[in-house]
Write a structure and sequence with these properties.
alpha+beta, 5 strands
Length: 85
């Protein structure tokens, strides 16, 4: 599934990113790498996708969100805050 298809207040894990090399390095510097757990804060299907990871919130445009592959995070309760089961 792509990041832009994720649901609000769900916890996901990054599987792969198909970004330009410079942008992928920048995402890595922010802490967004394969295996990172992210929570979708707001995805209104139009405009930016707001996500939270590593204690910070970020807004990604639809183009970038379309190129980040995610899956539902195993072992995490899908509620706001991502409490452990």
């Amino acid at each position: 599934m792509r990041l832009k298809e994720g649901k609000d207040h769900q916890i996901y894990e990054v599987l792969d990113m198909h970004l330009e090399p410079e942008l992928e390095r920048r995402m890595g510097a922010l802490g967004l790498t394969v295996g990172t757990r992210i929570e979708i804060v707001n995805n209104q299907k139009r405009g930016a996708v707001i996500v939270k990871f590593r204690g910070a919130r970020f807004a990604f445009g639809r183009r970038i969100a379309d190129q980040i592959q995610i899956k539902e995070a195993a072992g995490w309760k899908n509620t706001p805050g991502g409490a452990r089961r």
